[in-house]
TrEMBL record:
Keywords: Membrane, Transmembrane, Transmembrane helix. It comes from Candidatus Scybalomonas excrementavium. The chain crosses the membrane at residues 111-132, 138-156. This is DUF1700 domain-containing protein.
Amino acid sequence: PMTKQQFIQELSECLLNEVDSQEYHSSIEYYSNYIETEIRKGKSEEEVTMELGSPRLIAKTIIDSQLGKENQKERVSYYERRDEDADQREAQKDIFHIFWNQRELKWYEKLGVLLVLIFVIGIILTILGVAISLLVHVILPIVAILIVVRFLYQLFRK
């Protein structure tokens, strides 16, 4: 059994930095008011918090709900963007920015993006290295031989 304060504290810790400020305050206020209302009806704090269940599970539901809303905003933004005429498209953000600006990326998401970028840049540099190596070791000697052969051919032709 938990007290109201313990319940709100755990819910607060679980929601902090996981949902936007408005959702955070709204959720904390809602559950605080709900518990107060039930206590006024004659229930104990422990009864109310037991009926509500785990604050962690409630927080997970709230977080998942907000992520669902964000994903819906991304889809709506994408389709609104496609429906606008060409002049408006140039004035507004492109689809890429609408997608990435919906929420702050977590540290591990940023790290993942950075690692993918480093990997892609590494592949590009490797391909360029192979191309330059091929140029220096194969194509340039062939071109040099062709120039010498042509020079000798023209020299002995006369």
